[in-house]
Amino acid sequence: MIYRKQYMDKIIPFIDTPFVKILTGIRRCGKSTILTMIQQELEKRGIAPEQILSYKFDSLRYEEIDTASKLYKEIDKHMNPKQKTYLFLDEIQEVNDWEKAVNSFLSDYNVDIFVTGSNSRMMSSEISTYLTGRYVSFRIYPLSFAEYMLFRKEYTIPEDIYNEFRRYMRIGGFPALQLKEYSYDEAYTVVKDIYNSTIFTDIVKRSKIRKVDQLERVVKYTFSNVGQTFSAASLSKYLKSQNRKMDIETVYSYLNKLETAYILHRCSRYDIKGKEILKTQEKFYLADPAFRFSILGYNENVVASMLENLVYMELLRRDYDVYVGKLDNTEIDFVATKKEDKIYIQISEKIEKTSTKQREYGNLLSIADNYPKYVLRTDEFAESSYEGIKTMHVADFLLSQEY
Length: 403
What we know:
The protein contains 15 helices and 13 strands. By secondary structure, it is an alpha/beta fold.
């Protein structure tokens, strides 16, 4: 088990505080393992095993505990009112109105609670109603490239950084895929299973969707257009051109559900001069690049968009707010902000022509401020800096600690 320091460093300070710790993220990204790490931390602190209660609600063992009252009754009989209890509730979204039971535990017992869920409704208004001011949330993602390399060194014999980066871009960051040497076909079989369980459990079943084929068409369109600006209206128009009529509100609903299940991430545009977030022509990125390849197959023509996807997800892991930059009639791939910090990023698979270099660097040079600017690429280059703009290989950027 590889220690996921990035998340544990954030969570550990909240142990033994009066807040429910909520970990959310796409299925199989490692939330349950992090709960195990927290339990190990408690054991190091001398917490007795009988003080720790752990439930996994995606297990058939707890299938009948599907309401808040059943959850309360089950856990209540195991509580010891004379000592503090550490309660771990994994995939809690399977229990209806679970936040009511959690609120009661906070009121009735000396308890420290940790929960995980694979659905962004974990952050819904219902939670705010019952747990206002009583919870902290932590977003968990599939492995970063740095974490991926730790897994590779532990469980396999890794190649050089750049070959490993190419593999990471294709096989993705789901932890289970890094425990041995899988072929791409084997890995995509696993990823497709994650995709199917997410689609049919977290979306189709929960939302009672009848026209599954419509949802799948929206999925394939968004997967095919990663990193491209589009709107629900343009998607609806495209489907109509394919004799697949779907109204705009239905498209909006499906896109929202894919976001809710953490399959898609919406990236809004930001007007750099006007300093405002734009509400139209957004981009969408995937929780993991392997989703695209497992569903639609590998295609070298989409490498550039997958590079964007990797950088976008890394910026989210590092707690940046990320936007597509609009500068007059040009576009900056990413504008990333965090408190008072800001960085600008252009990404190019390779720069072979002078016109390409002028475009990538020229767009950044047009920005009239002194925040750091990067051009990221995957080909060879001689200069690490051009008129103050730093040039890096995408792999090196993902491993860098300088931003």
